[in-house]
């Protein structure tokens, strides 16, 4: 199964109401941190090879941000598929906004427990620390991703 992953500001979305079906998580410390790192096209000094959710190997630089706490996370229906909305702390959101603004057109890897759980292309600066992971997820797949990312 091919999963398309996007961050708010990374792709165009159409209007429509989102249906929230999983109880949102409030502010919480994560059981495992989320590392955010730039994906590079080839191995090099200071890069690490890690598997993604489809079993392919991607090469990433050292993380530019390690997230240990989220302000919230929800699973929501988005048009005909399901997705995950994550809200970072203000401090992490500021770092993320600055990094995404400087790295338009590049991929960012979300790494949990040494595995890349998503690696979307950055379309522009993403202010506010609000991340939306969307694609061809079923409701149960989106809930499993929420559990993988938050440990809850």
CATH class: Alpha Beta
Number of helices: 2
Which geometry do the CA atoms define? globular
Q: Give a count of the beta strands, DSSP E runs of length 2 or more.
A: 9
Q: Biggest β-sheet: count, sense, barrel? A: 9 strands, antiparallel
Binned strand content: 35-45%
Protein name: SecDF P1 head subdomain domain-containing protein
Organism: Actinophytocola xinjiangensis
Structure description:
InterPro entries: SecDF_P1_head. It comes from Actinophytocola xinjiangensis. With 152 residues, the protein is of the alpha+beta class. The chain contains 2 helices and 9 strands, in the order ββββββαβββα. The radius of gyration is 14 Å and the shape is globular. The N terminus is likely disordered.
Short description:
The protein contains two helices and nine strands; from the N terminus they run ββββββαβββα.
Chain-wise SSE layout:
Blueprint: E1 19-20, E2 28-40, E3 48-51, E4 57-60, E5 65-78, E6 81-88, H1 90-102, E7 107-112, E8 115-118, E9 130-137, H2 139-150
Antiparallel strand pairs: 1-5, 2-4, 2-5, 2-7, 3-4, 5-6, 6-9, 7-8
